[in-house]
Amino acid sequence: MISVVIPVRNGMPWLEGQLRALADQDCLDRWEVVVADNGSDDGSREFAEVWSTAHDRFRVVDASARAGAPAARNAGVRAAEGDLIAFCDADDVVHSGWISACAEALGHADVAAGTFDTWSLNGGPESPAIPAAYRQLGFLPAGLTANLAVRRSAFDDAGGFDEALLMGDDIELCWRLQLRGFRFASAPDAVVAKRERDGFTHVFRQTFSYGLCGPVLYRRYRSQGARRDLSGAGKTWAWLVCSVPLLLISNRRCEWARAAGVRLGRLVGSVRESVFFP
Question: Which residues contact 42 (CB under 8 A, 6 or more apart)?
Fold first, then answer.
């Protein structure tokens, strides 16, 4: 059986689209969806509960004991019945066949990352799907929990997500699993339409949070091979300085905010972690 775990904290109005896409899945294996509510106050939990009464594969669990998506995912897994676990986010939309593709990928791996469609929900031109698996810090490949599947036995053996990490917990889990000898693979047929944030402030805040996790991962795993890209960091900082005029161009401001958010997050994280990871 494969269990889909969705952490939710204030997922409206997008939650319905994701639940509808999951309800439309055609999978020969037994499957279920566990919505792990992390203390929503926008009606997300109530909506999911009403949805579950009409769809018997869906359940809602209270995951509000500790704030944060990693804690919600762990709570969802504890409540799940499957020996295979797939993760996706409330504001994205899985493609047809996603659950089956996740299950198929775990037939020859312990953890698998799918691919992202970045155009469907963002108004852009259609383009090739982007692999969710990538290498960070010149180290092991990792995937994002917006499109990730893992064997329950491997997940339990590794102790689940690190709930102290509010960002980067997915990368850290993938690395931890591989260092324990578990197999990582890509799942090209498991496609999720990824929703991008818009607006300068939203983009900056999101990427700033992403940046904060870099120094944490570097400090934890530098002794095992994680590396800094100082040359790349220098080029990005130079680009940011030279591209300040982009702030005057409305359709380019988010591009600048995305790069600035990551780099400033890394600087703040470096101070917190007592490392230099620009």
Answer: 10, 11, 12
